[in-house]
């Protein structure tokens, strides 16, 4: 039996494009064998159409377990959530969602999951509506939006520069922690385990980017 962790962040998330906090939460409760992380992927995209989720699905075998830190990290569409859960049940794969701690194999568990998935879907749609309404109200009051505005371009460039710098510093920290592992030719699994042991857990995707693989 293999325990997989699945994490996701979208471009709109306030996590600067990382999933490490989700990994930390998951590993505080379970021992994970493999991690798959979708970065800059919207929750509105069906689970099995996301790049890393597709790789995860292809690895699944009966008796395996998928662990997700929060419901909205896995699903933000009610139909996709329920269809995926049923598909996993048919494959005899267990799904654990830590923030709701439900046994979805029971009728009451499935009912509660349906309600919570509907709330996540509603929240996503309401956020989109509020953004649209905000732009509409702003334009009616003479405000302009878009990349063509100099102030917007400068703000985006500054934020992008800050994120690149933070990312480079983070990758440097990862490589420094692995100096004694890279030279002997340690495997990715060994390096990930070492990073977790020294209190710096990262996803396999982040590790590969740090090592330019």
From TrEMBL:
InterPro entries: Resolv_N, Resolvase-like_N_sf, SSR_resolvase. It comes from the Bacteria. Residues 2-142 form the Resolvase/invertase-type recombinase catalytic domain. Pfam families: Resolvase (PF00239). Keywords: DNA recombination, DNA-binding. This is Recombinase family protein. It comes from Serratia silvae.
